[in-house]
Write a structure and sequence with these properties.
With 348 residues, the chain is of the alpha/beta class. Helix content is 40%, strand content 14%. It is built from twelve helices and ten strands. The chain is globular. It starts with 9 loop residues before the first helix and ends in a 26-residue tail after the last helix. 47% of the residues are buried. The chain binds 1,3-dihydroxyacetonephosphate. The site of 1,3-dihydroxyacetonephosphate has 12 residues, from strand 10 and helix 11. It comes from Saguinus oedipus. InterPro entries: Aldolase_TIM, FBA_I. Belongs to the class I fructose-bisphosphate aldolase family.
Amino acid sequence: MPYQYPALTPEQKKELSDIAHCIVAPGKGILAADESTGSIAKRLQSIGTENTEENRHFYRQLLLTADDRVNPCIGGVILFHETLYQKADDGRPFPQVIKSKGGVVGIKVDKGVVPLAGTNGETQGLDGLPERCAQYKKDGADFAKWRCVLKIGEHTPSALAIMENANVLARYTSICQQNGIVPIVEPEILPDGDHDLKRCSERPPHLPGRHFAEPNMVTPGHACTQKFSHEEIAMATVTALRRTVPPAVPGITFLSGGQSEEEASINLNAINKCPLLKPWALTFSYSRALQASALKVWGGKKENKKAAQEEYINGALANSLSCQGKYTPSGQPGAAASESLFISNHAY
Ligand code: 13P
């Protein structure tokens, strides 16, 4: 057994543990509002709205200032660099707005997916990461996210892609922790393809411990013709996690990965009801499945702000129940509740 150099003091470990448990306190999950400028462009385009800083600011402010009914549901909000430094109309920086509602501030620190010769992609952004983490900590962020992408195909994910991404994720987690930032690792397996549940559950056992994981649920590929029940999806997901994620990880915060809002809530609920031992908090870190209805109702119009906030609040309340296994569909779905949110070869 190699000797592990003690990189963190007991005080540093306690700080990280406290932050993590705050984010996944019972009934809480994460709003992923960290779409890069390129990704938010596509969301705004879908509602015929121009991708200007003003519109991005208006929309993010709408989400972040939704009334206090969201407070018991949202343990953390992940922001993109630009949003971390924006202010609400009352002059408060957005991180302060999030904290005033009991949320922890997160920041996307990867710089997007780049081609890795001989594989299907790797994530860039380790350059200068210690300095960026130190600065983000000073500027109010207490957790971070790093997204890497793996694809299921005849020859993917390759051993090289798995190894490289695992290495990058491990380096990233260590750098974050040394700067007082709880790292979320996001090994996203894209839903593109016709693979079934079994193939999707054969995920690589490469998650290092002591931080958060933001995987996708084990679901059949978008083009798979076989149907699986929510209970089967839940069983496959929890089984795969039990084989790969150490019990020391405080929480697993699923991304929605192209599921509709309703599917994402029902599946999360089924996962929490799954009758297997689950040593971690199992909750949400949704972008599309927490925002689709709000975005649609807002439609880029100032006068729709309140109605859009209601949609977001309803989604947050629903998923707060789901992450406790207490959700039953209300029969009054949101504006985009059952729409598929699948995006081919999704970038973020
Ligand atoms: P989706 O919920 O839209 O999959 O996104 C969550 C996320 O954090 C992707 O990086």
